[in-house]
Design goal:
The complex is a heterodimer of chains A (242) and B (106).
Chain A: H1 8-57, H2 64-77, H3 82-86, H4 93-112, E1 116-118, H5 119-130, H6 137-145, E2 154-158, E3 164-168, H7 173-187, E4 190-191, H8 192-199, H9 203-215, E5 219-223, E6 228-232, H10 234-241
Antiparallel strand pairs in A: 1-3, 2-3, 4-6, 5-6
Helix pairs in contact in A: 1-2, 4-6, 7-9, 8-9
Chain B: H1 22-42, E1 47-49, E2 60-61, E3 66-67, H2 70-82, E4 86-88, E5 95-98
Antiparallel strand pairs in B: 1-5, 2-3, 4-5
C-alpha cells in the first residue's frame, strides 16, 4: 500500500496530482457521454431518413396525421430536411401556430411604427419579450412565410434588395409613393436619413421607401460624395407638363 | 467662346447620376444628347477626349459641384454614335468626333 505523505512539498504535489486526476476523469466522462449522445442522434437521423424514404415510396398510404407527427420528430432533433419534408406538407404545424401568435402580438406594434417592420426588428422584439424559449431566426422566417396563406393581418414581404419586412396586410405602396412624392416636392430633395428623421422610421425602411418611389418613376437619384439624395423626378414631370 | 444657354437639367443634380429607372434614364440620356450637340455647335468644337472630360464645363457643373462620371460620358457618346452624331477616333474609344449634323443631313 502507498504511504501517504501529508507533509512537505511531496505532500502538496501529491494532492495536486490527485485533484488533477479527478478533473481529468470527470472531463473524459462528460465527453464520453457526449459521444454516446451524438451516436444516438446519428441513429435517429438515420432512422428518420429511412422513414422519409418510406413515406416517399408509399405516398398516400400514410395518413395526414402521421406525416405531421413525423415532422414534429424531425424538428425536435434539429434535422433540417426541407426538400423531402416540404413535399408532404407545406410547413409544420408548429410554424402555423407560431405565425398566429406572431400576428396577434405584432399587429399593434407594427401599426405604431407605420405599418412596416424589418424582420430583424421583429426578431429582437419577439425574443426580448419572450426571455425563455426563444425563436431561432429560421423559425421566425418560416413562421413569417406562413402568414400570408393563413390570412393573418400581417404579411411577409421582401424588397429587391433582399431586406425582409413584416407589413400590415392593408399596406399600400401607392399611398406611400404619393406621400413621399409630396414630401420630395415640399423639401426639394431628401436622403434616406432625412426621411427617417421626419417620418420617425428606421433608415433602412426609409431607404426602401425612396427606392420604391424611384421604381414608380416618381423620384430620381443624385449620387455624389455627399450622399445619395432623392429628388422629385423632373425628367418625367417636365416632359409631361410641356 | 460663345456662351451657351444651359437647359434646366444642367443645374439639376440628378442629371449627373445615371438613373436606374428605365423610363427616367431614357429621358435623361435624350436630354444629354441634345445638350452635347448644342454645346459643341455653339463652342464650335468637334473632338471629345473622354480622359479630359472633367476639365470640360459641359460634363462638370462647378456651380452645383457635380460632374458626370466617365462611364456615363462614354455611354452618352455611344448613344450619339447610334444616331450617327458621333464616331470614335481610336479603338479604345477615348477620343470622339462629334457631328453637329449627322452625315446624312449634310
Amino acid at each position: 500500500p502507498q504511504i501517504k505523505t501529508r507533509t512537505g512539498i511531496i505532500g502538496i504535489e501529491r494532492s495536486l496530482q490527485e485533484k488533477q486526476k479527478e478533473t481529468d476523469e470527470s472531463i473524459s466522462l462528460a465527453f464520453q457521454d457526449l459521444t454516446k449522445l451524438m451516436d444516438m442522434a446519428k441513429d435517429m437521423v438515420a432512422i428518420s431518413k429511412t422513414i422519409s424514404a418510406k413515406i416517399r415510396a408509399r405516398q398516400g398510404d400514410i395518413t395526414e396525421d402521421e406525416t405531421v407527427r413525423f415532422k414534429a420528430y424531425l424538428m425536435s432533433l434539429g434535422i433540417d430536411d426541407p426538400v423531402t419534408r416540404d413535399a408532404y406538407k407545406s410547413s409544420n404545424e408548429y410554424f402555423e401556430q407560431l405565425a398566429k401568435q406572431l400576428a396577434s402580438i405584432l399587429e399593434e406594434p407594427i401599426k405604431e411604427v407605420g405599418g412596416m417592420m424589418t424582420l430583424t426588428d421583429v426578431y429582437c422584439r419577439v425574443n426580448r419579450a419572450r426571455g425563455l424559449e426563444l425563436l431561432s431566426p429560421e423559425d421566425l422566417l418560416h413562421a413569417s412565410r406562413r402568414l400570408a396563406p393563413l390570412d393573418l393581418p400581417i404579411v411577409l414581404r421582401s424588397f429587391d434588395s433582399g431586406v425582409m419586412v413584416l407589413q400590415i396586410r392593408s399596406h399600400d405602396d401607392y399611398a406611400v409613393v404619393d406621400r413621399i412624392t409630396e414630401l420630395l416636392k415640399e423639401k426639394g430633395s431628401m436622403t434616406a436619413e432625412d426621411l427617417a428623421q421626419s417620418e420617425g422610421i428606421s433608415v433602412l425602411l426609409a431607404r426602401e421607401r425612396l427606392l420604391v418611389t424611384e421604381k414608380h418613376g416618381k423620384a430620381c437619384r443624385d449620387d455624389s460624395i455627399e450622399a445619395l439624395k432623392f429628388y422629385p423626378n423632373l425628367f418625367l414631370d417636365e416632359m409631361s407638363s410641356e | 467662346m460663345a456662351e451657351i444657354e444651359w437647359p434646366w437639367q444642367y443645374s439639376f443634380p440628378p442629371f449627373f447620376t445615371l438613373q436606374p429607372h428605365t423610363e427616367t434614364r431614357a429621358k435623361q440620356v435624350a436630354a444629354w444628347k441634345s445638350l452635347v450637340l448644342e454645346y459643341y455647335r455653339v463652342t464650335k468644337q468637334a473632338v471629345v477626349d473622354v480622359r479630359e472630360v472633367h476639365t470640360n464645363p459641359l460634363f462638370n457643373n462647378a456651380n452645383i459641384n457635380r460632374r458626370l462620371p466617365s462611364e456615363a460620358v462614354l455611354m452618352i457618346l455611344e448613344e450619339l454614335a447610334k444616331s450617327g452624331n458621333a464616331t470614335p477616333l481610336d479603338k479604345t474609344k477615348q477620343r470622339w468626333l462629334i457631328y453637329w449634323h449627322t452625315l446624312e443631313e449634310w
